[in-house]
Structures are given as structure tokens and as C-alpha cells.
């Protein structure tokens, strides 16, 4: 499965966002228990001991222009945001388990930054974190269309 991604920058300064599939980090014990109960109800086929659900952003799997706060639940962009080379992304701590079937997550945009240029999506492990989520697929599609068009 893919991991959740968020990013900012690249031609206009991305803002901050937060989100993730659940709680995490420093939640009181009763909240953690309630969260586990709800996740088990939502995703009965997922064994979290075997395949943990994504609950926060990964401090290890992000580009340097990304900052994390609030137990890795809040993302903020620290780059210049003037060109596409300024783009940055972050992945969740764990991929979405295939056993989920349908996976639900929310992201709250706290600030759009200077120009509101940001992306929210999913990405595979190994995708360049110096791009917005989905950018590689869009470029690949663009080049395929252009190449096909040029052959006619």
C-alpha cells in the first residue's frame, strides 16, 4: 500500500497542514484505548501488530524543507517556494495496509502560505521527496501524451 503524503512549495510557498490517519504520540491512555477500539471497528481485517496503520508523519521520510511538530501530526513548509525545485513532501510513518480496502484520512489546512501552492496525496516508497505527491505520475502522463501526439 501507499503512504500518505503532503507537501508544499514549488513555485509559490506552501502553507502548513496537519493530519494523518489517527492520533498518536502523547495521547492520554484512555484516548489511545478509544482510538484503538475505533480503528479495529473501521479496519477489522487489519492486525496492527503485523501491519500498523499510519498515525503520524515520519520524521525520517521527508524532505529537508518540511518541519514537523505536535507529535509529528503537524507539517510546516520551511523552503523558499519560488520554483518547482523548492517542492517538498513527507510520508506517513507506515504505509496503508492493503487489508484496509478503503482508507480514510483527513488533512486540515491551517495556512495556505503565500500563494497556496500545495499537494495532498499518496506516494509509493522510494518516490523523490523533493516533489509534490503525484508529480511524477503527472509528468509521466504528460510525456506519454506529448510523445504520442508527436508521432501522429
TrEMBL record:
This is RAN binding protein 10. Residues 1-34 are annotated as: Disordered. InterPro entries: B30.2/SPRY_sf, ConA-like_dom_sf, Ubq-SigPath_Reg. Residues 1-27 have a biased composition (Gly residues). Gene3D superfamilies: 2.60.120.920. The lineage of its organism: Eukaryota, Metazoa, Chordata, Craniata, Vertebrata.
Amino acid at each position: 500500500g501507499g503512504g500518505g503524503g503532503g507537501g508544499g512549495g514549488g513555485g509559490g510557498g506552501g502553507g502548513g497542514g496537519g493530519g494523518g490517519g489517527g492520533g498518536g504520540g502523547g495521547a492520554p491512555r484512555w484516548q489511545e484505548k478509544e482510538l484503538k477500539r475505533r480503528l479495529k471497528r473501521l479496519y477489522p481485517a487489519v492486525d496492527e501488530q503485523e501491519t500498523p496503520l499510519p498515525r503520524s508523519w515520519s520524521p525520517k521520510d521527508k524532505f529537508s524543507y518540511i518541519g514537523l511538530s505536535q507529535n509529528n501530526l503537524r507539517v510546516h513548509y520551511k523552503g523558499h517556494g519560488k520554483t518547482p525545485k523548492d517542492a517538498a513532501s513527507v510520508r506517513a510513518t507506515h504505509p496503508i495496509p492493503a487489508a484496509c480496502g478503503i482508507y480514510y484520512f483527513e488533512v486540515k489546512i491551517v495556512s495556505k502560505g503565500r500563494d497556496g501552492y500545495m499537494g495532498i496525496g499518496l506516494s509509493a516508497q522510494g518516490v523523490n521527496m523533493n516533489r509534490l505527491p503525484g508529480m511524477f505520475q503527472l509528468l509521466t502522463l504528460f510525456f506519454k501524451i506529448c510523445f504520442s501526439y508527436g508521432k501522429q
